[in-house]
Structures are given as C-alpha cells and as structure tokens.
Amino acid sequence: MTYCVGMCVDEGLVFLSDTRTNAGVDHVSAARKMAVFEQPGERVLVLLAAGNLALTQAVTHLLAAPADPEKPTLYNATNMAEAARIVGDAVREVHKRDALSLAEFSVDFNCSFILGGQIGTQSPRLFMVYAAGNFVESTRVSPYFQIGESKYGKPIIDRVITPATPLDEVAKCALISMDSTLRSNLSVGLPLDLLVYEKDSLSVTRFASLDNDSDYFQMIHRTWGERLRQIFGEIPNPTWTDSADVPRREREQNASVPRLVIGDLPCPESPAQTLAQTDPGATQQ
Asked: Which residues lie within the region annotated Disordered (predicted)?
C-alpha cells in the first residue's frame, strides 16, 4: 500500500509520499512514488502515484519518454489542466495495453495519481487523476488530495489546513498526517519524500528525504504523541447522573439506572440495549 498527500495553498504546494511497496513478515520493499518534471524558470510539475507499482511505473515512464514524440508532454503542456489530461491519456494507454492481460490473472487495474505544479506565470494548481484517466481539481474548500491509505491522516488535515495556512505549517501538517498513518498501518513506511514548492519560484528549492535518522521527523513523532496524550488527559471525564428524560423510561423496571450526561442532555444506551430492556424476548433466537 502507500500514502501520498498533495496540498495547494496560497503560498504554494506541498507533496509528501512514503516509499513502502510491500510489507510482510520477511519481505519489505520500497520504491519512490514521487516524480518531478522540472524546467527551472519555466515550470515545475510533481506527480505522486499509488496503486499497482507496475502500473504506476509504466505510466510514469510513458510520461518521461512518450512513445509518440509528436504528442504533448508534461514539458510542453500550456497549462496544468492540459498536463492533467496528458497524465490521464497515459493512464488510458497503459490500460489499453495491459488491462486485459491483468484481468486474465484476476488482477485489477488499480492506480491513481496526484499532479500539481506551476507553469509560467499561471497560478499553481493541484489535480487527482483516477484509474479511468479522468481527473478533478482541488478547490479552496478542499485544497488537498490523498491517495492510498488515506483515512488515518485525514482528520488532522481537515482540522488544520485552509488556503491561508503558511507553507511551512502545511508541510508540518503533512508530516503529522503521515506520522498518524505510519502509526496505524504497517503497509506505509519510511523513508518519506517531502517537496515544498514556493509559488512563482519555478524551481525545486525545498526537498527532503526523511528516514529514521531525521531529527525533525522523530521530533514530530515524539511530540505529537505526547501532546495528544496531554490534551486527552485535560478533557473532563463524563459525569453520570440519573435523568427522568431517558426515552421510554416509563417501561423500565429499574428507574434508578444512572445515565451519561453531557451538559443537560442525557445520552441513552444503544438501540440494542434499549430493545433488550423494553422487550426481553426480542433478543432471543
């Protein structure tokens, strides 16, 4: 599996990807999932990939060295939307070539991409390209995309990132998002590739490969866990009290059962518990 995230804010773009491609008891392997297409002073495009490694590498190789030199490439696309279409076309070309053969071995055509960057004086843009070759663009309401094992790292991004978030804070949020994913999923692993693109720089100036020897990432890992436990301990424990407002309380035989109260509102038991209390025979098979 993998986890990649791309974020587009007012100050620029942030890209982060892990490198684990397989995780087993005695077989762990890694490969880079970030590709950079750069012409300093003219354009910078970054591609993140997730899914079947053979498929994502086939698409990346096709983009780096097109079979037809007359076709548009990421190095001569006139805007980012055209660049996203070029990636989509490459995905469709690989699908046309390989999908039927994969299906004979019951292998799904599974790949997805995040493409972001800036061309000339145009604004930086961010896209997600799906396995069908179609794509969507990020918005100011949702200025980021995730591919791969995304669920563990999503909550922190949703709570923190806005278009106005400073670029260094976006990078920090991406690393915390990745740390949460590493903590919960063995199929995502170090080292990490982090690229921070400053708007209008038109060159790669901030890139890092982070592993277990990275002091900053180890600080993120340690501090985030400590602060979460600290904040958790500071939140008041629930207060229990008897309440006359419990639904269907009139049918209960024991009216003195305490209820969890948050503020002035009772929190009733689960529907299954309520059913068992109001109709004991309902749970019998």
From this structure: 239-285
Q: For 143, list phi and psi in degrees, rounded to 5.
A: -85, 30
Cα–Cα distance, 240 to 260 (Å, whole number): 5
Q: Tell me the C-alpha distance between 110 and 113, whole Å.
A: 11
Closest by CA to 255, choosing from 245, 265, 263, 267, is 245
Closest to 91 measured CA to CA, from 135, 136, 40: 135
284 pLDDT more than 50: no
Output phi, psi for 254, to 5 deg. Answer: -105, 105
CB 110 within 8 A of CB 52: yes
Domain boundaries, the chain: 3-229, 239-283
Structure-block tokens of residue 285: 């098979």
**pLDDT confidence of residue 240:** 82
* Half-sphere exposure at residue 246, Cβ-oriented, CA atoms within 13 angstroms: 25
The answer to whether 17 touches 4, Cβ cutoff 8 Å, is: yes
**Considering the domain 3-229 in this protein, what is its CATH number?**
3.60.20.10
Backbone angles phi, psi at 87, to 5 degrees: -65, -45
- What pLDDT does residue 24 have? 65
Residue 26's SS3 state is coil
pLDDT at 277: 47
Distance separating alpha carbons of residues 228 and 2, to the nearest angstrom:
25
Lowest mean pLDDT among 22-26, 93-97, 161-165: 22-26
Distance CA 243, CA 255 (A): 9
Please state, in angstroms and rounded to a whole number, the distance separating the CA atoms of residues 128 and 230. 36
Instruction: Give the tens place of pLDDT for each residue, 110-167.
Output: 999 999 999 999 999 999 999 999 999 999 999 999 999 999 999 999 999 999 999 9
